[in-house]
Design a protein that fits this description.
CATH superfamily of the largest domain in chain B: P-loop containing nucleotide triphosphate hydrolases
Strand content of chain B: 15-25%
Radius of gyration of chain B: 21 Å
Order of helices and strands of chain B: EHEHEHEEHEHEEEHEHHHHH
Largest sheet of chain B: 5 strands, parallel
Largest sheet of chain A: 8 strands, mixed
Oligomer: heterodimer
CATH topology of the largest domain in chain A: Rossmann fold
CATH architecture of the largest domain in chain B: 3-Layer(aba) Sandwich
Number of helices of chain A: 25
CATH architecture of the largest domain in chain A: 3-Layer(aba) Sandwich
Helix content of chain B: 40-55%
CATH topology of the largest domain in chain B: Rossmann fold
Largest interface: A-B, 42 and 40 residues
CATH class of the largest domain in chain A: Alpha Beta
Helix content of chain A: 40-55%
Distance between the termini of chain B: 64 Å
Strand order of the largest sheet of chain B: 3-6-9-2-10
Number of strands of chain A: 19
Structural class of chain A: alpha/beta
Chain lengths: ~700, ~270
């Protein structure tokens, strides 16, 4: 009787009992259904563990029961127990989220249990991103697609699996990740998507099979292309893959020819499909999604074409003065997107963004299309991100300050557009700073030591060959030497080394909602590091936070004003920094610029800490408008003698930063955890003598 | 009172230099009109070599001063030395260059202390005089004297910028890394390696330059590529050479080192 399986209604009843605290919106019925097919022993296990887990935290009990059928497919009984216990352990030690992540990562758990050293996407992401960036020179982002899914690319993002456990060593699995990413990169680089694949295979009955053949044939072709330019990489990929299957032998000469294109693969594909075979499965091939790739590619080409045409129009507009008529534009396209452009016979250079666009077009199309080389006509271009309906909040208090905002559509300021309220941060936990100080004691003392060495102080160097004053000691010695017939030293002077820093720094901290959690913690910790460093250095500094909700409520939070001592009140305000609303950056920069400009020092530095692009609720601020306004605000600061520097935490790169702040004026950290350790070094480098 | 001024030598053998654009012609024009020249560009792209080449071409002696943050006016102008019971004036490199009608090249001028840049002001405009105040001497520069300074705009420190009052006295020539083909020629010729290896090194250079701003302050300079080639021609393997001369020279960051290792292995 005891080994009879429980039926759905029985399971439902028991689940209801063990998951007593379960939220009502969860469907216990569906859960019971999914457990019905398990054996009685398994069902008992699930009910037992779900009950135990639910006593700790109801959500974990529920998740465990939900994942149980899948878990039993991958794990044996002991494995199941170990998986649950690992999950509960993780909850005790690290909290809810890590526990849920661990439980969900069944594949990973199994691989580790079986002693296979797997490689995880999260561990290779940063390294691979840089590798691919190095290869391509244009931003290709990386994302993960969940475990078990094949890798693919839409020509802008390389989608890679969560983890790879195919090989026995972790190093080999990491190399497998690299090979996968490299092959996807090669698809975007060597024109796999340069033809309409959908149309080319439309008449073939079995589309998935046709795509599988194409993926394979393209892999052969791309491998040969990689071998030409990056032989080391090709060798590594070949080692992982082994020789091509014998069935492909007849196709090899054609695909490996230097002139082969995707058309050759498509032609051969028909032969293989006609022969009626099944494509052999090889490692790290991934899959193709020509429809998605085609759409993304078309959007990019349209965008790059527009950028290039606008740049040409601007060049043409700048010419035409010599003859008094319209400028004559001559374009001679060269290799790799390089081209020689002559306006009225003079060679001119394209601006960098247009050069990048031209290069991207060549990568996509093989050459520059004629339509991209005709300058945009007047009025032929409309901004794509049209202003949405503005959303204003009504505020009962009059603004402390009002600032203009730059509207790039109009190329003019909107007068008094942003309402600024200067408020104080609610003091936080008094022990926070001390706690962080204890945790990073070694780092802080290291930072203090290094900054004390930089501190500017007047020094007098004695016994110099040259200097403002005579060094009496040296003079007396020289006199004695001369009297006693010894040749006196010529070092008779002393020199004063003036080492004035005369520096004030303003730190502007992003307090938008997106910083909630890790980023906020990292910001607070890095501010503590900075304060320690700057106290050692003696530079005057201020810290302000910013956040807001539309243009009518831009809040600036005072954390430490210039001249404030780094005392308990400031420490408690740092502890009290919390994530709030949106990121309207331009106005915050303008307000803080005003405060900073009033400082009577020679060098003024504005450092912004943020976690992404400017953004505000409801209106057009996100996108180009916000970036242009921020850029303009930084220009204004620059005109007032203020240098600015952006530190941004943005895991997926930040393509807008170069435009927004200019080259050599920003750092992108791909990991939040690096901020506290890096921030002091960034400041030191910025203000190095 | 004695006056010591170092003897300046001319460059007899033609230094190897591959023109990238119109820089040779522009430099000659500036020299003919006695206008000072500012060279800007990333490190290791050939600025110093260019000046050597021009000094050889114009048949003038060359005085190079590598500027550093303790470089004082006295280091440039000269100083009194006490020799025995005598006081002797010793010309500094700038004064010596003015006396001899040489090219004076102040490399990485932003590294020098701010007050030192002021002494070059009267030399760099129509007055063309050097004031040696310690001697009460006003030294007019002969026609052959030419002042050349260089700096790297990629620096991020706000204390390392050329003041507009200084920079607006110069003819500015911008340098960048040469095109891939030209760079391969340079690497092959300077590094003593064959063209195939030179091309691979240039490819590696290009990949590292893609990473500028993504964790690298600068990509590999032409000079680094030449160094790698030289290490190869002295008998080491290309991977060893690229790791030592390029990857390790570019960064200390362990993550970045891994990426560079990946790129090195991809290319060779």
């Amino acid at each position: 009787m005891t080994d009879r399986r429980l039926f759905e209604h029985e399971l439902e009843e028991r689940l209801d009992r063990v998951l007593f605290a379960s939220p009502s919106h969860r469907s216990i019925t569906r859960l019971a259904q999914s457990l019905e097919t398990l054996s009685r022993r398994q069902q008992d296990k699930v009910l037992h563990w779900a009950g135990v887990a639910a006593k700790t935290y109801a959500e974990i009990g529920y998740l465990l029961a939900t994942l149980a059928p899948q878990a039993f497919e991958l794990l044996d009984d002991d494995g199941f127990d170990a998986w649950v216990i690992a999950g509960l352990d993780a909850y005790d030690r690290q909290g809810l989220r890590p526990a849920m992540e661990l439980l969900r990562d069944l594949e990973g758990f199994r691989a580790e249990r079986e002693g296979r050293a797997l490689a995880r996407y999260a561990d290779v992401e940063a390294r691979l991103t840089r590798f691919v960036h190095g290869l391509s020179g244009r931003p290709l982002a990386l994302r993960n697609v969940g475990s078990g899914n094949p890798a693919w690319t839409d020509t802008e993002i390389l989608f890679l699996p969560d983890l790879l456990a195919e090989r026995s060593s972790a190093e080999d699995n990491r190399r497998l990740f690299k090979a996968t990413a490299a092959l996807l990169w090669a698809q975007t680089r060597y024109g796999t998507f340069s033809v309409d694949i959908d149309a080319a295979i439309a008449d073939l009955p079995d589309r998935p099979q046709a795509l599988a053949w194409l993926t394979l044939l393209e892999a052969v072709r791309l491998d040969a292309r990689i071998a030409q330019e990056l032989p080391g990489l090709a060798r590594e990929m070949a080692e992982l893959r082994g020789p091509w299957p014998d069935g492909l032998a007849p196709a090899l000469p054609r695909l490996q020819a230097a002139t082969a294109t995707v058309q050759d693969s498509l032609a051969l594909l028909r032969e293989f499909v006609a022969a009626g075979g099944v494509p052999p499965r090889l490692t790290f091939l991934g899959t193709l999604d020509p429809t998605a790739a085609r759409r993304v590619r078309a959007e990019r080409i349209a965008k790059e074409t527009k950028v290039l045409r606008n740049a040409l129009a601007a060049l043409k507009g700048a010419g035409g003065r010599k003859q008094g008529g319209e400028a004559v534009l001559d374009i001679a396209p060269g290799e790799d997107g390089a081209m020689e452009i002559r306006v009225d016979g003079d060679v001119v250079a394209l601006p960098p963004e247009a050069q990048a666009a031209a290069q991207a077009l060549v990568q996509d199309l093989g050459e520059l299309p004629p339509e991209a080389l005709s300058p945009a006509g007047s009025g032929g271009w409309l901004p794509t991100d049209l202003a949405g309906p503005g959303t204003d909040l009504v505020n009962d208090r009059d603004a402390d300050f009002r600032y203009d905002e730059w509207d790039y559509h109009r190329s003019a300021y909107r007068k008094g557009w942003c309402h600024v309220y200067e408020v104080e941060v609610k003091p936080g936990d008094a022990d926070y700073v001390e706690e962080v100080g204890n945790r990073h004691r070694a780092l802080i003392s290291q930072i203090r030591r290094r900054f004390e060495a930089v501190r500017g102080e007047d020094r007098v160097l004695g016994r110099q060959p040259e200097g403002e004053e005579i060094d009496l000691d040296a003079q007396v010695d020289a006199h004695i030497d001369r009297r006693s017939g010894i040749e006196p030293s010529p070092r008779l002077f002393c020199r004063r080394i003036r080492n004035e820093r005369s520096m004030a720094a303003m730190f502007m901290v992003d307090m938008s909602g997106s910083t909630k959690g890790w980023v906020n913690d990292a910001e607070r910790e890095s501010l503590i590091m900075l304060c320690e460093a700057l106290e050692a250095l003696g530079d005057d500094y201020a810290i302000y936070g910013f956040s807001g909700w539309t243009r009518t409520r831009c809040d600036i939070y005072r954390i430490k004003a210039f001249g404030d001592r780094y005392d308990d009140a400031v420490k408690r305000r740092i502890a009290g920094i919390e994530a709030r609303d949106y990121t309207r950056m331009g106005v915050a920069i303008r307000h803080l610029t005003r405060l900073l400009a009033a400082q009577p020092v020679r060098h003024k530095l504005l450092v912004t800490l943020s976690d992404g692009r400017p953004d505000d609720f409801g209106d057009e601020y996100r996108g180009t408008y916000g970036i242009e306004d921020t850029r303009q605000a930084l220009h204004e600061a620059r005109r007032q003698g203020i240098r600015s520097y952006c530190v941004t935490i943005d895991r997926h790169g930040a393509d807008y930063l170069k435009r927004m702040v200019g080259p050599a004026a920003y750092t992108v950290l791909d990991e939040v955890g690096k901020l506290p350790t890096k921030i002091a070094d960034i400041y030191r480098r910025l203000t190095a003598n | 009172m004695d006056l010591l001024s170092p003897q300046l030598a001319s460059i007899d053998d033609e230094p190897y230099y591959q023109p990238v654009g119109e820089e040779v012609g522009l430099f000659e024009a500036a020299a003919a009109r006695r206008l000072p020249v500012l060279l800007k560009g990333p490190t290791g792209c050939g600025k110093t070599r260019f000046v050597e080449y021009m000094a050889w071409k114009l048949k003038r002696p060359l005085v190079t001063v590598a500027c550093h943050d303790d470089l004082t006016t006295a280091d440039l102008l000269g100083r009194y030395l006490i020799v025995g019971s005598e006081t002797v004036w010793m010309d500094g490199p700038l004064t010596a260059a003015v006396r001899a009608g040489a090219i004076c090249y102040l490399d990485e001028i932003v590294e020098a202390r701010k007050d030192t840049t002021v002494v070059i002001h009267p030399l760099a405009d129509s007055r063309r005089v050097l004031t040696v105040d310690k001697r009460g001497e006003l030294l007019p520069a002969p026609d052959d004297f030419l002042l050349v300074i260089s700096y790297n705009p990629g620096y991020q420190s706000i204390l390392k910028e050329i003041k507009p009052s200084t920079r607006q006295r110069f003819i500015a020539l911008e340098f960048d890394y040469p095109s891939a083909e030209l760079e391969a020629q340079i690497v092959a010729s300077e590094g003593g390696v064959d063209e195939a290896l030179a091309k691979k090194l240039v490819k590696l250079g290009e990949l590292t330059r893609n990473l500028k701003g993504q964790g690298l302050d600068e990509g590999a300079s032409t000079r680094l590529l030449v160094h790698a080639a030289q290490i190869v021609s002295a008998g080491r393997t290309p991977i060893e050479a690229a790791n030592a001369a390029i990857a390790r020279a570019l960064t200390d960051d362990p993550d970045m080192t891994q990426t560079l290792d990946d790129l090195v292995r991809a290319v060779f």
